[in-house]
Amino acid sequence: MTVYGLIDCNSFYCSCQRAFEPRLKRLPVVVLSNNDGCAIARTKEAKALGIKMGEPCHLVREQRKLSGVQWYSSNYPLYADMSRRVYQVLLDHAPRVEPYSIDEMFLDLTGLPGDLSQRCDDMRAAVEQITKIPTCVGWGPTKAIAKLANYIAKDRPEMEGLCDLTNEQTRNRFYRNLPVSEVWGIGRRLAARLDDTGIRTIAQFVNAPPAHIRKIAAIIGVRLQAELRGESCLQLSEVAAQRHGLACTRSFGRPITTHSDMSEAVTGFAVRASEKLRAEKLDAAHVSVFIQTNRHKRDEGWYANQASLTCAPTSNTLALTAIAMRLLRTIWKDGFRYAKAGVMLNDLAPAGTQHTLFDIPSEQDTALMGTMDAVNQRFGRGALRPLSAGVERSWRPRQNMLSPRFTTNVHEIMEASSF
Amino acid sequence: MSTYAGDRTTGFASPAADSVEGPIDLSEVLDLRRPSRYPVRVRGATFAARGILDGDVLIADTAAQAKGGDLVVASASGTAILAELKANKGQWWLISGDNSHAPIRVDPAQDVEIWAAVTGVVREKP
User: Fold this and answer.
1) What are the Peptidase S24/S26A/S26B/S26C domain coordinates in residue numbering (chain B) (predicted)?
2) Under an 8 A CB cutoff, do A86 and B111 touch?
3) Is residue A280 classed exposed, middle or buried when 0-12, 13-18 and 19+ CB atoms within 10 A define those classes?
4) Tell me, what CATH number does A345's domain have?
5) Which structural domain range is residue A361 located in?
6) What's the number of domains chain A is made of?
7) How do residues A3-57 score in pLDDT, each as one tens digit?
8) Does residue B9 lie in a domain region?
9) Residue contacts between A and B (CB atoms, under 8 Å)
10) Is B58 close to A416, i.e. CB distance below 8 A?
11) Do the Cβ atoms of A191 and A184 come closer than 8 Å?
């Protein structure tokens, strides 16, 4: 019988911060979104203080009861490297691992010898010893069941971080008592529509006539129903599918009011997006640019617009930047306080496979881009960039509470005092 | 990028063309890609007698099993320290390199824990 597992890192971003700062061990830790805006990861101590997911930091920070909270800007280079480490440890314990998100991995646990509970416990212990990150593991005959098992393992302390849903009787017991909204892929809106037809528990969902589910939740719903019954529909995918689009968007550290600042920002996004494109050896044939003011401050004036253009397939930074600048000019309006902008690249295809008659990229262009990437690889992102991407870049997102990049930059590694 | 590595000569064919091995990659030698390997900077020189000086970069391995006499990175009273591990009467102790501190007993309940075993040391500018 096929067995899928799902291992999930507890408060992943916070756990990464704790890994390298022992003083944080029992303190409430919160990691903030881009721009130091909202709480996006909380330790259980922080949750106990009533800090909610998505809570804006600046609104609650001054409260006396939160004076002991350790706030951190999100440090993505650190989290990416720790995610890699978790993945590599898992490969020593399961033959196939699917990195589903930065902090969750699906495992193929089919046919492994010995007691599966013991194995999963050993796996958790190894991940924690090696990466210092605590995890929970759930498993069952399908991915949807593994995901649910993981939720139960995490939600109920008495499970001690493990939950086995391979047994149908055990599953049905949980199904009767869990709301359908805990099922992977059933969001709030879908849950509300199911609720309207009297489907509240997972058991009710699983036992509903497929025709009824198809009407409410289309084929996805029917597939989930089968998965929850133990019929596997979703396979393990060890690598991400080729992208259809690629975006680089940011909220600004302060509102942008001038065209020149916005040009810098949008150039920067185009540069980064084309870098990502080349890293995946792709060309883009469609470019979009959007700009918008703060949705929550409509009294300051609200404006949002987007423009797109089809172009000859390319991954050339200078070509893509030029297009982005043209698009920006068509949507720019003076007199607004812009909070966010972005560049999106679409119609992606493997580099060099879809050249038109007229736009054959010169070898020099390819060499120039290769050199630019190599320089930036060696001297840090943005070391070599078009001057139009700006020098001062005062609109850059705020990251005032950034920890060192403990594992990716030799000048910022962990320190130990000689005892 | 065009890189000449001793192979693709323009005039006379390089007799070494099939034998290029490239420069030594220290991160490979030190096995830094292993998920359990972390570089850690030392502050202070209490372990000078064991050849570890202020500013050295330790290669700490969180999967390695430390035994008596080994150097370890440990956490004690909320900070990371470099200490020598010693077994005494069935317990593990963290020992100072120059006897400047009294030994501390390893006790996870008191948040005194071994973080990693030291498996190597790198000095950038001796």
Assistant:
1) 8-118
2) no
3) middle
4) 3.30.1490.100
5) 246-389
6) 1
7) 999 999 999 999 999 999 999 999 999 999 988 889 999 999 999 999 999 988 8
8) no
9) 94
10) yes
11) no
